UniProtKB/TrEMBL annotation:
Gene3D superfamilies: Cysteine Rich Protein (2.10.110.10). GO terms for molecular function: zinc ion binding. The keyword Repeat applies. The keyword Plastid does not apply. InterPro entries: PET_domain, Pk/Esn/Tes, Znf_LIM. Residues 189-254 form the LIM zinc-binding domain. It comes from Lygus hesperus. Transmembrane segments: none annotated. This is Prickle-like protein 3. Keywords: LIM domain, Metal-binding, Repeat, Zinc.
Length: 272
């Protein structure tokens, strides 16, 4: 008997559908394989999925620092760190915005601020609406992770280690953490980072925890580890080196690569 053409088409359709399973079918097959291979594998896959999304936006999956709204509470670093503000030295937010900037170095009169920013790469000058403003916002999140600043932002610190966390924060704030300010150099001095001179009349950066005689070039005031400009001149000192808060903390405590929180327990898993 001649072959039924409808049966042939049906068979071809079955072959095609089996060769190109739907997305839902793929997921079903993977779940079935995970359950059959190991009773724990499906749990591990789910945990890996959750950990990946801890550092990404739940809506669009892009890095969290890409969103302006994420930084609304980070505009003023001194308020975020709980440090009082002297309006005469640090300037008001309205004054900074009137200069077309998201941030200006404390300690300088307005006519010296432009001199300070000429020392920096132009793509890192925090002018409103530019890539420099985006760079600052990103560094605020990276260098000053909120889970390093207050226990309220931590989700994975065991209650048994809350005291250790608070002791660490208190010691850091008293011993290591501070905000530098800019000033006009009056006496020739050598920059600790590059070794070249900071000359009278030039603008330098003074970090009080290093004394009042040492000045850095504005472009040299960087973290010893990541080599990024210390955001809003916020720094930590450890063994006479400058660090951003993130990398200072990591000199003393391990950090979880999944949730990005410091680890205060004695046991943790390290990927080799």
């Amino acid at each position: 008997m001649p072959e039924d053409p409808r049966a042939t088409l049906l068979d071809r359709g079955r072959k095609i559908s089996s060769s190109f399973p739907s997305r839902e079918r793929n997921f079903a097959v993977r779940r079935r394989e995970a359950r059959s291979n190991s009773p724990h594998r499906s749990v591990l896959l789910l945990d890996a999925y959750r950990l990946y999304h801890l550092k990404t936006c739940n809506s669009c999956k892009c890095p969290r620092e890409s969103h302006d709204v994420f930084h609304e509470e980070w505009v003023n670093v001194r308020e975020r760190l709980g440090i009082g503000q002297d309006q005469d030295k640090w300037g008001s937010r309205d004054r900074v915005i009137s200069q077309g900037l998201a941030w200006a170095p404390p300690g300088l009169p307005p006519y010296k601020v432009d001199q300070y920013f000429k020392c920096l790469p132009q793509d890192k000058v925090p002018k409103l609406g530019t890539s420099g403003e985006k760079y600052r916002e990103k560094q605020l999140m990276i260098q000053l992770p909120k889970q390093d600043l207050a226990l309220a932002y931590c989700r994975h610190v065991d209650p048994a280690h809350h005291t250790s966390y608070e002791d660490f924060i208190t010691a850091r704030n008293e011993i290591a953490l501070d905000i530098a300010y800019a000033k006009e150099c009056t006496t020739k001095t050598d920059c600790p980072e590059c070794g070249r001179s900071v000359n009278p009349g030039e603008v330098g950066v003074l970090a009080p925890k290093f004394g009042d005689k040492i000045l850095w070039h504005p472009s040299c005031f960087i973290c010893s580890h990541c080599k990024q400009l210390l955001v809003d001149l916020t720094y930590c000192v450890h063994d006479d080196y400058l660090y951003c808060e993130r990398h200072y903390a990591e000199q003393l405590k391990p950090r979880c690569s999944a949730c990005d929180e410091l680890i205060f327990s004695g046991e943790y898993t390290k990927a080799m």
